[in-house]
Design the sequence.
């Protein structure tokens, strides 16, 4: 298993995940390669969730030659993936390669940049669209967003998700996370598991993750 528990979050330490994140961080990585990199990273993280978080069970099967015992992942039909628009779209595309039968939800949530970051290090969040499936007690819910910065957006998203039901497991998946956002989510949502490929140094005065990877949405969709 290549997931390491750092206390404030679990970190994906798979070599290919770190390699892909390094490519995403580079300012020389252009739009198409960046978007494909997010897809790739989402797929890797999906496999890591299967290996490090989900359970397996043994069962007897019949091969063309004989009866044998095999192993299956439990709960693959009970996965819900929440796409935090828009930066998470390619990230979720990769996750769906690992969880092809997952139910999906979409939340369009973004910072209100006009007021800036307040003294508590938080932003007002604008929610433009919410479409979530019903959440069941046996579900594993994965809320995906490449960047966990102040935690303002993710906290708002988690509030909407929790209104839909109480799943067996609720995971936040990020490519890069800032310590400030991790502290907030752990305090506000102690039962939520956080999985990140990297925990970065800090937030700058505008609330961007340092060293980070820039604005993932702008880089993936070539917008400003």
Sequence:
């Amino acid at each position: 298993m290549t997931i390491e528990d750092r206390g404030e979050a679990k970190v994906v330490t798979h070599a290919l995940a770190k390699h892909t994140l390094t490519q995403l961080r580079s300012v020389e990585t252009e739009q198409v390669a960046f978007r494909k990199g997010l897809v790739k990273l989402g797929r890797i993280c999906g496999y890591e969730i299967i290996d490090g978080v989900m359970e397996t069970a043994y069962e007897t099967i019949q091969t063309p030659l004989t009866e044998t015992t095999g192993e299956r992942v439990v709960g693959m039909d009970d996965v819900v993936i929440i796409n935090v628009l828009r930066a998470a779209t390619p990230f979720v595309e990769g996750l769906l390669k690992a969880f092809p039968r997952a139910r999906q939800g979409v939340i369009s949530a973004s910072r209100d940049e006009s007021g800036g970051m307040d003294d508590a290090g938080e932003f007002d969040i604008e929610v433009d669209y919410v479409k979530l499936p019903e959440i069941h007690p046996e579900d594993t819910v994965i809320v995906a967003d490449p960047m966990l910065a102040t935690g303002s957006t993710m906290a708002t998203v988690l509030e909407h998700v929790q209104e839909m039901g109480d799943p067996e497991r609720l995971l936040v998946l990020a490519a890069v996370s800032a310590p400030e956002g991790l502290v907030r989510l752990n305090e506000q949502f102690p039962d939520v598991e956080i999985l990140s490929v990297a925990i970065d140094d800090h937030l700058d005065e505008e609330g961007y993750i340092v060293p980070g990877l820039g604005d993932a949405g702008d880089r993936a969709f070539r917008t400003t």
